[in-house]
Write a structure and sequence with these properties.
single chain, 241 residues, mainly beta, eight-stranded antiparallel beta sheet, five-stranded antiparallel beta sheet, 1 helix, 16 strands
Amino acid sequence: MIFYIVKSINVKIKNMKPLFLTMLCCILSWTISAQDFLPLFNGKNLDGWKVSTENPTSFVVEDGLLVCRGGRAHLFYEGKDGAPNFKNFELKLRIKTTAESNSGVYFHTKYQASDWPSVGFEAQVNSKHSDPRKTGSLYGIVNIWAPINPEVPFISKVNDNREVFVMAPRAPSMDGEWFDYHIKVQDNRIQIKVNGMTTVDWTQPKDWTKSRRIGSGTIGLQAHDPKCVVYYEAIELKILD
């Protein structure tokens, strides 16, 4: 088993019989509980999502799965009103990578027609792609670092740009196997889990000056390159106070 440990850096109701009222309360309670996590992907089509104009055919729905296949593109959640704005939330996904594929889950981002999103954070999806920043990374902030070529071993280090690197023997995900991805944002804290294991627990420092800052925005998915084939299912989000 691989363990990564990253420290935070810095109705007015009348005349109802008691039995009926009890049943009504139970139904209401169940409904509220059942809606804690709401699905963002319906398993049928891309309703509620908007794809970038760059390689828009890189996202398709096949056999109930959302498939990233093809050149660089990004798919942004728009919801019903076209203007979702999530700040504190929990996001759960089921993901499967294939040989040498690369993808990512963006959050606190916004629609962008082309290029890499300039706003928000990326939770990396990469099991064996050449990029050494692997699944479970908060890309460019806290990296689960598993390089292909040998390096002088270390436990963790921070570069001059305050980017954290945590050495790992491999990614916490495996090509060809489904894994659970869990992203939680609460105030200035971001947590990432892979199959229940915490890979990142990062608190944005008060003096943080980088352009990628905790704020609010929507969710986005990434198709990285022509060799990219990644599968998503069960994309669910819960709003937090």
